[in-house]
Amino acid sequence: MMRLQAIPSQHASIETVRTAFHDLVLPDSLLQTLGCVINSRRSLFLTGMAGTGKTAVAERINAALPGAIWIPYAVEIDGQVIRVYDTHNHRKISDEMTPAEYDRRWVLIERPLVIVGGELTLENTDLVWSSASRFYEAPFQMKSNGGTLVIDDFGRQRVSPQELLNRWIVPLERRVDYLALNTGKKIEVPFEQLVVFSTNLSESDLADEAFLRRMGYRARVEPPTPTAYVEIFKRAAYTRGLKFDQRSIDHLLNNYMIEKRQMKGCEPRDLLDRITDICVFEGRTPEVTPKVIDIAWRNYFGASHSFASEKRTTGELRTTGELQLQTEPLEL
């Protein structure tokens, strides 16, 4: 059942891929690779420096997988119950879209997107027994069947990347996983999901060439060019309702040039969030200006805060008859 549903009814095209990634600015070559990944359902090893949008890309791959799938609420093996359906990872299709007559042991859901990060341990990949409820909880890879499994920040888990890769080298090749019951019995379950490994670490530090050859696809997300950066900035400003002009954009790009700082795809969003915070705090119209950009820049990339940097004094000149006083801040 799961193997039949794992293959989407329609192949992805460049148009459907563009639609799935419409809110991201990506090169056509990467969109083509992602389209091949989606159609083949082979694993993807996604690398790149921090802040280039790897996680955003990985999360949107699932949106390009059309259709809904049926999964069992639970499965029973030799009297042992394994719960599969999970409201945290599975989104049930509305009753209006569900057939009137169907086997009530099954539930119709959207293709699941399961994301795990630094909290992952090797124990999480096995069945978890609940002595209170007297049933097993399916591991996250089993719950991601028919959808997408994203291993985010790969290499920063509480288990070594080599151990995790050794655990999944057979499932990735054969599309089956083996889980153990408390009785010691091994059971075979489908491993029918698209697996994405996302990392900003070096490939050579995470896996040997033998394993990398078993990866379906490998892609590196590069930092944006100035033109791509401006397009990301414009889209992010539009969604936040922030006005801007070319003078402000030129000022922002000049800051990068002066500090010789590498542009990253996440920075327009982060800077605009801080600009919004400043406008709300000061009660001003939501607008991007060179002055506000400089304040947001310091808050984002870090800057020292001292009285010397403020070209004003905290005291005021006061006239009381014949005496004028000026107070100075106490410098510690």
**N- to C-terminal distance:** 72 Å
Order of helices and strands: HHHEHEEEEEEEHEHEEEHHEHHHHEE
Tell me the number of strands: 15
CATH architecture of the largest domain: 3-Layer(aba) Sandwich
> How many strands, what sense, and barrel or not for the largest sheet?
5 strands, parallel
CATH superfamily of the largest domain: P-loop containing nucleotide triphosphate hydrolases
Q: Number of folding domains?
A: 2
The name of the CATH topology of the largest domain is: Rossmann fold
Task: State the low-pLDDT regions, or none.
Answer: 313-327
If strands are numbered along the chain, what order do they take across the biggest sheet? 6-9-12-1-13
CATH class of the largest domain: Alpha Beta
Please estimate the helix content.
25-40%
Supply the number of helical segments: 12
Structural category is alpha/beta
Provide the gyration radius in Å: 26 Å
The coarse overall form would be elongated
Relative strand content: 15-25%
Average pLDDT metric: 87
Mind explaining what this structure looks like?
- The chain is α/β, with parallel strands linked by helices and 332 residues long.
- It has two domains: 2-220, P-loop containing nucleotide triphosphate hydrolases (Rossmann fold, 3-Layer(aba) Sandwich), CATH 3.40.50; 226-303, Orthogonal Bundle (Helicase, Ruva Protein, domain 3), CATH 1.10.8.
- Helix content is 35%, strand content 19%.
- The protein is built from twelve helices and 15 strands.
- It has helices at 2-6, 14-20, 28-40, 54-61, 140-143, 161-174, 203-206, 209-214, 226-239, 246-259, 267-282, 290-301, and strands at residues 44-47, 68-72, 74-77, 80-83, 106-110, 113-116, 128-130, 135-137, 148-151, 176-180, 186-190, 194-199, 217-220, 318-320, 323-325.
- The chain has a five-stranded parallel beta sheet. Strands 3-4-8-7 form a four-stranded mixed beta sheet, with no helix packed on it. The chain has a two-stranded antiparallel sheet with strand order 2-5.
- A hairpin with a 5-residue loop joins strand 10 and strand 11 (186-190).
- Helix 11 (267-282) crosses helix 12 (290-301).
- The radius of gyration is 26 Å and the shape is elongated.
- Residues 313-327 have low confidence and may be disordered.
